[in-house]
Amino acid sequence: MHLCNSTEIANRLRRIYGIEAEVLPPPHGMDPHAPQEATPGLEPGFHLCVSRLLPYKNVEAVVAAFEHLPDQRLVVVGEGPGRKALEQVRPSNVELFSNLTDARLRWLYANCQALVAASFEDFGLTPLEAGSFGRPTIALRWGGFLDTVEPGVSGLFFDQPTADRIAQAIKEGVSHEWDTDAIKAHAATFDAATFRTRVLEVVQAQLGDCP
Questions:
Q1: What pLDDT does 41 receive?
Q2: Rg of the chain in Å (alpha carbons)
Q3: pLDDT tens, 150-191?
């Protein structure tokens, strides 16, 4: 019996190793009911990007998209080797933060307009974190995001991680009427109880087969 975290990984296991694996997405660890702490100088309504600053995360393309969106704001939360370059090229409507407390990160999720995720992910975790606060995600149509973003319900997709495609998708997201309860309900399907129950079932089944 094999378990994996996303359809993307299940497809790779089948293609490369001939293994059929059950998809069991891990739960997110964000508690929307835990304390929040506002970030000084920020007003609600910004877009949010939570990511390590590495090339495959495509944060630079997200930042560049906001050159085309002067009426929108972006908050980037992350650390990595790409930070210095982002500081040098970011437009005035983009702010960078790192090493935030959990309380401040929860506040950012709760008060953003939407999450923007342009990375090539095996499993798309941040849309579930944002979704637990009822916030939609504008995401790259690739990999794990195909499992964790439900188009039109919990988010929208763009097809290429380029500034113009991201900007267009953000514009569509701004004009879309989102149902906060539906977004929360979608995120709740990736809960810890479901994950734990299925793992225990698999372990018990395997132990039952042992001599």
A1: 87
A2: 18
A3: 999 999 999 999 999 999 999 999 999 999 999 999 999 998
Amino acid identity, position 9: I
Mention every residue, 6+ apart, whose C-beta is less than 8 A from residue 54. Answer: 80, 81, 82
Amino acid identity, position 54: L
State how far Cα 167 lies from the chain centre.
Answer: 17
| Mean pLDDT to the nearest integer, 11-24 | 96
How far from each other are the two terminal CA atoms of the chain, in whole angstroms? 17
Length of the chain: 211
Q: How far is the C-alpha of 98 from the C-alpha of 78, rounded, in Å?
A: 5
Whether the per-residue pLDDT at 11 is higher than 60: the answer is yes
- Domains of the chain in sequence order: 28-190 (3.40.50.2000)
pLDDT of 210 reads: 57
Judge whether 191 and 185 are in contact, CB under 8 Å.
Answer: no
Q: Where on the phi/psi map is residue 51: left (φ > 0), alpha (ψ -120 to 50), or beta?
A: beta
Structure tokens at 200: 């225990």
CA distances from 84 to 60, 76, 81, 87, 177 (A): 11, 13, 7, 5, 36
Distance CA(16)–CA(197), nearest Å, equals 29
Cβ-Cβ contacts under 8 Å for 197 (sequence gap 6 or more) = none
The pLDDT tens digits for 128-150 are 999 999 999 999 999 999 999 99
